[in-house]
Amino acid sequence: MNSSEDRALYSELTETVGALPAAQQPQWPHRDAVDDATAQLRELPPLVFAGECDLLTTRLAAVARGEAFLLQGGDCAETFAGVSAENVRNKLKTLLQMAIVLTYAASVPVVKVGRLAGQYAKPRSKADEIRDGVTLPAFRGDIVNEFDFTEQARQPDPARMVRAYHASAATLNLARAFVGGGYADLHEVHSWNTDFVRTSPAGQRYERLAGRIDQALAFMKAIEIDSEQLRTVELYSSHEALLLDYEMALTRVDSRSGVPYDVSGHFLWIGERSRQLDGAHVEFASRITNPIGVKVGPTTTPDELMALADKLDPERRPGRLTFVTRMGAGTIRDALPPLIQKAAANGLVATWICDPMHGNTYEAPSGHKTRRFDDVVDEVRGFFEVHRGLGTHPGGLHVELTGDDVTECVGGGDPIAEDGLGSRYETVCDPRLNRTQSLELAFLVAELLEA
Ligand code: PEP
Ligand code: MN
């Protein structure tokens, strides 16, 4: 049975957030089935704890001050089929490998956040998909419907929200066990990086940097810094808070502080397509205490940015609000400065991170949605240039990646060509950097951080 505080909070959310226009929600066929699923979700235990969310807020405040760097990454869309030890392990391995390189180069702690354990809902540019003259509802992520292009599979099914909860719980449990149980051992993770540098053509360029990290680790060992801390890391979960029926059912009153947290993940963000100031998503995010992000694309005006900050972070709580810029490689150098300048002029200290993926998507002649590795790198470069030029902090990266050797993004040091995309194109939504491209990106960003 939920507590009376939780029941009161849920009614308040359904009355306030529920009354506003909500972009990108599915057309559920039966309201009863939605009520049944949300009733089940409301009885289930939290996936994350308020205290963990607060700790992440303090970490993000350090990012905003330039005293830490954020690495956020994972699939565009997680799938139920992807909840396997191998898949989760490979993704974590890649994130941890990237984090070591970035930590060394930035000389500050790297805050690690997975697009993981909850990233099951997707916004779509069109509500329907047409293939060979057949029109069906678009795939909106495993939390809503199935990817297969059949009438039955594409029917939104509210019971999938409960499956998404359990898939998130299993993923988070595994992730917590990996990082707490020795898998994140610094020496081990570094040895994977040395393998990458030694054995792959893409890695060879980074031999010197990897060698310097070797030396640093050897030095630490020599002076007997070999504490338990080197064997574990702090890892946080995050996803887009898109499907409001799900997120509201998992919002609870924290018994310590009496304030609401969305306990479906540590960090929640609002997407580019659902950040309307008078819309349901912004209202929902304004009512939870977790650290939150907002995607800001090239059409965002400085006034809009400030209005978002006023609505989402009126108290200017350090670490509360992260702007995830996704401008496109060709646009970032022009579009980002006015936003940063406006924030600075208003005394707003936000955390700025770069999503170099979503502004750089295009369709290859084969019909695959893809991104050029060079564009991704160029957007990151632009992000650093702009911040350095204005004296503000380039806080981190938000990337779509996998630990597997997929062929979804074009280019890289072990290059994937447009006509090779079909060989291992496995994403159910946007193209991800594969393992090699992700590690390369980390080494390239390390060079930028050291510059
Ligand atoms: C995403 O992060 O997968 C996404 C859809 O991004 P955006 O909201 O920036 O388009
Ligand atoms: Mn995406």
Automatic annotation (TrEMBL):
GO terms for biological process: amino acid biosynthetic process; aromatic amino acid family biosynthetic process; chorismate biosynthetic process. Mn(2+) binds at residues 76, 358, 400, 430. Pathway: Metabolic intermediate biosynthesis; chorismate biosynthesis; chorismate from D-erythrose 4-phosphate and phosphoenolpyruvate: step 1/7. GO terms for molecular function: 3-deoxy-7-phosphoheptulonate synthase activity. Keywords: Amino-acid biosynthesis, Aromatic amino acid biosynthesis, Cadmium, Cobalt, Manganese, Transferase. Phosphoenolpyruvate binds at residues 115, 272-273, 295, 326. InterPro entries: Aldolase_TIM, DAHP_synth_2. It is an enzyme of class 2 (transferase). Its EC number is 2.5.1.54. Binds 1 divalent cation per subunit. The enzyme is active with manganese, cobalt or cadmium ions. It catalyses: D-erythrose 4-phosphate + phosphoenolpyruvate + H2O = 7-phospho-2-dehydro-3-deoxy-D-arabino-heptonate + phosphate. The keyword Ubl conjugation does not apply. It comes from the Bacteria. Its cofactor is Mn(2+); Co(2+); Cd(2+). Belongs to the class-II DAHP synthase family. NCBIfam families: DAHP_synth_II. PANTHER family: PHOSPHO-2-DEHYDRO-3-DEOXYHEPTONATE ALDOLASE, PHOSPHO-2-DEHYDRO-3-DEOXYHEPTONATE ALDOLASE 1, 2. This is Phospho-2-dehydro-3-deoxyheptonate aldolase.
